[in-house]
Here is the input.
Amino acid sequence: NEPKEKGTLLRNFLPMAKTARKLRVAMLLDLGAFLRIFLTKEYRASPDYFKAEARTFGIRPNK
Here is the structure.
């Protein structure tokens, strides 16, 4: 019975790992989108030194 059980465990674990990876990717994408929105919002009402700093990170000002 043991080998069968091992196979079942693996079969149950693999989809979970895939789902976790999908969740992690989705979380990173959401975080990236949030940061972009947050930074561009801050960008418009920020002092020049921050704008210069942001330019080095490749963030374009909203016109």
